């Protein structure tokens, strides 16, 4: 058994520094993760075989059921879908066709916005382009003249050529800058950015609802992206009692630009379109996928280390980097730990969340049901038993370090763990910074240590995150392998520590949380 | 009037060096081109309004007729479509729909291959994936078992993330390297690359024809590209007497990859598809768009300076960078010269070619009809009267210099002209190198000086060249403006020279030329 000794530890003994890394266990994890990797197979099942995975859709259900069954096969215990409450309606696309027929024929790249209804068969008609930048513009179109029309909302989306690569990795300088930066705002955005996004979202939804009252035939909207890539979102609410919204496509900005330039040049544009969508509203509740490796230490086995990522996705691709990547890595980490024959002292529990894309619903409700309510800060006994939660939701890029989320307690421990993988983690980095927009925040909100890893960006922010280009091809398998090994090591080390991971001060009780995005 | 004097010229007087640049004319060209540019309007007409411009298609016809009429409005003379002979059938897409319906629904990005026939209404069926890498593989499928099937030809297309930018400009180092490099091979390819491409093309067409004899229901093939971009080509011959080919789609490699992985995993994949295409075979002949500014010098007005680019395009986009960009720049250069009120000594003639994408047919036939036949090297009297031909067909990127095409004669002249625009040409460069694959080669083939400019690549080789992403949005208007000014200056200077542009030695008569691509 090989063990690394840190000379400093002899000078400054203490809980955080004292514990050695079990290098024999690390070697087993490496071997299983690098030589017998199953990331390709897992990712294929979650993306290609399951398909788009909007919460409560058949695709989500396929992925959840497969994950439960696969983890059972690996010998994990308590593998199940654990209901957390009411999410709302499932939804999926059954037909999507959009093309220009005049002044000439051209097929367009687009898809129905999530939770909108279909066109009830093929429709055809001339397009009206409306330019709605503010309330005043909006009022111009509230007089019924758009009734029965195909309406394109004019947009100004940047489609200029990019002189920066789609795919990037952090440089040493990037990481050093991150090491020294501090937590700010909510996650990755400044308060000003958050406010701007909120305002834009509010206005956009007002435009949608105004157009709805005008009984238009079809709504079209360009989305960001270029070269055939476009980003997707919802066009109506998923809540159980929300009213049906009329048909609405989101589409590539180039094709929307073509329509706009022709119409503004006085050339009539005729489109044909057909969409069909299915709603699944018989069962509005949903669940998270949960599975465990039971702890073996009599004193510690009731304590838990968690790892997870969200299983749900948007609907235009197969949600490969957002977030089959995270689920693949977390499942593979569990598989590695089980297959390596290691006996963790604490119980290790994986959670694959639902409803993340609509507001971290799966993890928020799990935390509320299991550990405590951030609104009241009434905590359960289980709150004391969780050591840490590790999350992956930043795409396919390999791990370069970890965000402390403002919790300086485990810095030295994490540095030690990362450094023990310095052959596969280039320039391992620990930053005090927080990172937002995903499920570790649900744990953080009740004062539980929730962490995300620093990952190379690859194409996450340029091509894949919520886009139609988010397919299996966008996964970098070598990076997924590395991530699974590092996560398995973090989780195992956390399970073996004498003490639980240090915590921040408990947050104060707070009011109802707003929707995340 | 401002004139630039080159001190060297006093030491080495001579025809090539002696002639001063008319800086007053250059100032007029700059002013008209930079302050009153019409590149946006011209490009909009050629792309958005005309649509895809496969030779002899209605889109090509719209673009050609608009160009003729617009150039007449500008006061150009002899503006007309000049017939050059038989090209073959026009063709266009009337309907294009391709989607997966099982194991779940997903709309696919794809389009019928050029000159293939339609599906005669919607079709549906399970996909068979065939892996045909060589003759032996091919024989396996020649026994009728594919009859009536939807067949996807398996491919291995690189869809890895790109860590290089889509859009690039030449660095000073790139250009310096080019200055010193020599002509090689055919155009941009080495003889080995050419041979490999020929072999691949031949085998691919053999696969197509074998599948055709198997009476399959629909052929599908992945094309290069990623993130929604895919490249297009033809699936059958455009020649007048060629037999009809069955329906065939080319599609995004990610969607083809999805089908392939599912089928290879034993999961049946069902597709639905519909294509409709129109053939235009009543008139198989076609023409090039020609227009002139008449020369004014009694002794030189019978001599001609030409400029051009091909007007035809592929069918999945609107052929913006390939090659509405070139046509826009050349038309704008003519407009600038006319609007500036300059009186060129020699006649200036623009040509917008047809049939370039299928083998430089428009320019080859124009040259053959007008100047001489490269096969026999029987030359016409007009051969002696042409000073030079300038071509643009490398996308939207601004001019950085010129390729001499192995003709060292005009080096000093071109250097002087480029340097006089060093404020808008960064690091002006003249290289002896040839560049291939387009219409200046038709002139070069009969010993006439035919040149292309060195242009910044922007997204030409990564995204736009022959792809569905080749739309108006991909044009960099500032670059088109600069190109039009520089081209107008080159053309005007050529028209004013005491002598014609120096020529290379006449090539020897050669046999029939093979198809270019």
From TrEMBL, chains A, B:
Its main location: endoplasmic reticulum. Keywords: Carboxypeptidase, Endoplasmic reticulum, Glycoprotein, Golgi apparatus, Hydrolase, Lysosome, Metal-binding, Metalloprotease, Protease, Secreted, Signal, Zinc, Zymogen. InterPro entries: CPQ, Peptidase_M28. The keyword Hydrolase applies. GO terms for molecular function: carboxypeptidase activity; metal ion binding; metallodipeptidase activity. It comes from the Bacteria. GO terms for cellular component: extracellular region; lysosome. Residues 1-18 form the signal peptide. Pfam families: Peptidase_M28 (PF04389). One of its GO terms (biological process) is proteolysis. Residues 288-491 form the Peptidase M28 domain. It is found in: Endoplasmic reticulum; Golgi apparatus; Lysosome; Secreted. Homodimer. The monomeric form is inactive while the homodimer is active. This is Carboxypeptidase Q.
């Amino acid at each position: 058994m090989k063990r690394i000794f840190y000379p400093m530890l002899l000078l400054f003994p203490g809980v955080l520094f004292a514990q050695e890394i079990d290098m024999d266990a690390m070697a087993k994890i490496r071997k299983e993760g690098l030589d017998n990797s199953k990331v390709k197979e897992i990712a294929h099942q979650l993306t290609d075989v399951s398909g788009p995975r909007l919460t409560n859709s058949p695709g989500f259900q396929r992925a959840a059921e497969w994950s439960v069954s696969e983890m059972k096969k690996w010998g994990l215990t308590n593998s199940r879908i654990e209901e957390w409450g009411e999410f709302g309606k499932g939804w999926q696309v059954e037909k999507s066709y959009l093309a220009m027929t005049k002044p000439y024929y051209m097929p367009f790249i687009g898809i129905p916005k999530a939770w909108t209804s279909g066109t009830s068969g093929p429709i055809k008609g001339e397009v009206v382009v409306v330019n709605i930048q503010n309330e005043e513009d909006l009022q111009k179109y509230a007089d019924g003249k758009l009734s029965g029309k195909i309406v394109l909302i004019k947009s100004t989306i940047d489609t200029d050529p990019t002189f920066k690569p789609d795919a990037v990795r952090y440089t040493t300088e990037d990481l050093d800058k991150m090491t020294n930066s501090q937590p700010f705002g909510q996650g990755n955005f400044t308060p000003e950015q958050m406010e701007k996004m909120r305002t834009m979202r509010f206005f956009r939804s007002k435009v949608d609802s105004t157009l709805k009252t005008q009984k238009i035939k079809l709504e079209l909207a360009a989305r960001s992206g270029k070269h055939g890539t476009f980003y997707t979102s919802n066009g109506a609410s998923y809540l159980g009692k929300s009213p049906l919204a009329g048909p609405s496509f989101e589409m590539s900005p180039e094709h929307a630009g073509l329509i706009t330039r022709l119409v503004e040049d006085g050339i009539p544009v005729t489109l044909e379109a057909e969409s069909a969508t299915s709603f699944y509203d018989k069962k509005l509740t949903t669940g998270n996928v949960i599975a465990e490796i039971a702890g073996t230490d009599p004193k510690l086995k009731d304590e838990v280390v968690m790892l997870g990522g969200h299983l749900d996705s948007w609907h235009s691709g197969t949600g490969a980097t957002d977030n089959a990547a995270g689920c693949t890595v977390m499942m593979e980490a569990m598989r590695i730990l089980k297959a390596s024959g290691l006996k963790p002292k604490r119980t290790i529990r994986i959670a694959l969340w639902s409803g993340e894309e609509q507001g971290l619903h799966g993890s928020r409700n799990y935390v509320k049901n299991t550990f405590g309510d951030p609104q009241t800060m009434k905590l359960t006994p289980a709150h004391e038993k969780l050591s840490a939660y590790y999350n992956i939701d930043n795409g396919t890029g390999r791990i370069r370090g970890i965000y402390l989320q403002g919790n300086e307690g485990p810095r030295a421990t994490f540095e030690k763990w990362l450094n023990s993988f310095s052959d596969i983690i280039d320039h391992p980095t620990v930053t005090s910074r927080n990172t937002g927009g995903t499920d570790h925040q649900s744990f953080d909100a009740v004062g539980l240590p929730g962490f995300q890893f620093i990952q190379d960006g690859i194409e996450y922010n340029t091509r894949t995150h919520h886009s139609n280009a988010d397919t299996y091809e966008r996964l970098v398998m070598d990076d997924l392998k590395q991530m699974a090994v590092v996560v398995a090591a973090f989780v195992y080390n956390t399970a073996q520590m004498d003490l639980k991971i240090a915590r921040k001060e408990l947050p104060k009780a707070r009011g109802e949380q707003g929707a995340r995005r």
